[in-house]
Specification:
17 strands; Ubiquitin-like (UB roll); Rossmann fold; alpha/beta; Alpha-Beta Plaits; 19 helices
Length: 574
């Protein structure tokens, strides 16, 4: 590979040919501010915040897209550069709503941070403010076009990473706007609610629909019995909101915080993940024996299910009929738990804390009430929970650890790894292999299904049969996998698809970050907790065994199907 040498702010640097000026500067610790740039998205060079001065060139260049060249001499902080950057940011601020103190991104806004970083203390320009209507049609996402700064990051992630194209840029020049097809609400288009657009938006033009007030109301209602479940990925990310190191595992502190907030029972979604493996695992075993409707495709990710319903309805017969762990938990909380606690399901207000914005849409689906009550009454994201903890004045980082309540707080390592791409597949294989082989599985880690590649495949030997499995994370990768199956280029028995890159650890409701390594750190935390669990196979969870023995009967029984399974249907994209 050809190497080139250049000088940045007086410091020599050597990089590979094709490296951008921005990347070369980062290599030697020189910070160049950016806005439209995102390390995981297609380069755009639209905002001009990252301009630098190149000796011998008349105009400033956008460092995020301009390739470094041999013998370049670059200044990243000259008078002309500083003046140009400040002017661009001042123009953006002039057109931006001035409601920073009550904005959901206050303190985490990239435009706000740039203003502070560039020393802007007054705005010299007076711009026209938009007065466009909020798009609150979605159960998951609120779109505020008045705050959009046209960086295009949301458009690129929706097209490039998720292959949904629910939003795009319309019009030209000063009339340009990021909008939906036909300017309809997000709920009236192909949006699946995954929230990846929120994760890359530098301001608050996109945010999750806030359900914290509904949860506060329930907690303050003396007649309501409020139970809460916590998804695996939340415990691997929540600490970031309180200044803790990325990848910190905060399970015990999280349980303590939820009790301090006033929840009557603090349960674990991982319990329901173990139940999901029982239902989905035995569903797979049945299909494998009958050799019908293969491959079986997991249904734990509501973003993926929504995508399948809109873009690949012909694949729905292959999608597992199992509800997600969130919805299984909700159904069991208002039946099994209510019966054990001697209370009516109607008095239970069921809250789930999820890394995923699409879970809000999933909970609102009309069919999710097979118990006679809505499975889940309110869904809040990791970010929303952090806001509630702050609002309550809880010093999270210094909380003591405590344990989940029983019985629906007991889980296995298999339930833990549901939060990372490949985890549902690995958890299922731990049970399926042991059931079909009829002997104890001594090595429970299926390393061949781990990793972060967009599409991964493996062949696992089970009961004398080669079982071909595949894993896709991110909807664009799911599209690639499904197209290869439709074209007859690949054949599998079992497929896991997660709607978000990295799986739930990279969900649309997780703490905001532009660190491309963040998902790996969160995944490491979940694998660490799996290793620490005394029980690592779902079917060996004593609380799950008792659930089947005393309430459900066998996996895939009539009662289990009634409460824990559902149906999916083809939906129009518009």
């Amino acid at each position: 590979m050809e190497r080139i040498k250049l000088t940045i702010d007086g410091t020599p640097v050597e990089v590979e040919a094709g490296t951008t000026i921005l990347e070369a500067a980062q290599k030697i610790g020189v910070h160049i501010p950016t806005l439209c740039y995102h390390p995981e998205l297609r380069l755009e060079g639209a905002c001009r915040i990252c301009v630098v001065e190149v000796e011998g060139m008349r105009n400033l260049v956008a460092s995020c897209v301009y390739p470094a060249a041999n013998n370049m001499v670059i200044k990243t902080n000259s008078e002309a550069v500083r003046r140009a950057r400040k002017t661009v940011v001042e123009l953006l601020i002039a057109n931006h709503p001035q409601d920073c103190l009550v904005c959901s991104r206050h303190g985490e806004c990239e435009l706000q941070n740039l203003s502070r970083q560039l020393g802007i203390r007054k705005v010299r320009f007076e711009g026209a403010k938009r007065d466009l209507q909020l798009d609150e049609s979605s159960h998951s996402i609120v779109r505020d076009p008045n705050k959009c700064i046209l960086c295009g990051r949301c458009v690129r992630v929706c097209e490039q990473t998720q292959a949904v194209n629910a939003i795009g840029v319309a019009n030209r020049g000063s009339a340009s706007i990021v909008t939906t097809p036909f300017n309809h609400g997000l709920a009236d288009g192909p949006c699946v609610g995954c929230g990846q657009c929120i994760n890359v938006c530098p301001v608050a033009a996109l945010r999750e629909k806030d359900d914290t007030e509904r949860v506060w109301d329930a907690l303050h209602n003396a007649k309501a019995h409020v139970v809460v479940q916590v998804a695996p990925a939340v415990r691997a990310a929540l600490g970031e909101e309180f200044g803790m190191r990325s990848g910190s595992l905060v399970t015990g502190k999280l349980v303590t915080a939820l009790r301090k907030l006033g929840f009557d029972q603090v349960f674990d979604t991982q319990f329901a993940a173990d139940v999901t493996i029982m239902e989905e695992g035995y569903e797979f075993i049945d299909r494998l024996k009958k050799n019908e409707n293969l491959p079986l495709i997991t249904s734990c990710s509501p973003g993926w299910v929504g995508y399948c319903e809109r873009f690949y309805p012909e694949m729905l017969p292959h999608v597992s009929s199992c509800k997600s762990p969130q919805q299984m938990f909700g159904a069991l909380a208002k039946t099994y738990y209510a019966e054990r606690a001697g209370i009516s399901g109607s008095s239970i207000f069921s809250v789930s804390i999820m890394p995923c914005t699409a879970k809000k849409t999933e909970a609102a689906r009309g069919e999710m009430q097979d118990s006679g009550y809505r499975d889940v009454d309110a869904v809040i994201t990791t970010r929303e929970l952090a806001n509630m903890i702050r609002e309550a004045g809880i010093d999270f980082a210094n909380l003591p650890d405590s344990e989940f309540d029983l019985p629906m707080g007991m889980s296995t390592g298999a339930g833990t790894i549901f939060g990372v791409t490949g985890g549902v597949m690995e958890a299922a294989l731990r049970t399926v292999a042991e059931v079909l082989d009829g002997k104890e599985l001594l090595e429970v880690e299926f390393q061949q299904v781990r990793g972060f590649a967009g599409v991964r495949e493996a062949t696992v030997r089970i009961a004398g049969k080669n079982v071909r499995v595949a894993i896709a994370n991110g909807l664009a990768q799911a599209k690639r996998l499904l197209e290869s199956i439709k074209a007859g280029e690949a054949e599998y028995h079992f497929i896991e698809i997660m709607g978000c890159p990295g799986g739930c650890i990279g969900g649309g409701g997780q703490p905001l970050s532009t660190d491309p390594e963040i998902r790996m750190k969160r995944a490491a935390a979940l694998y660490r907790q799996d290793m620490l669990k005394k029980v690592r196979k779902s079917h060996e969870n004593p609380a799950v065994q008792e659930l089947y023995r005393s309430f459900l009967g066998e996996p895939n029984s009539e009662k289990a199907h009634h409460l824990l399974h559902t149906h999916y249907q083809a939906r129009s994209r518009y």
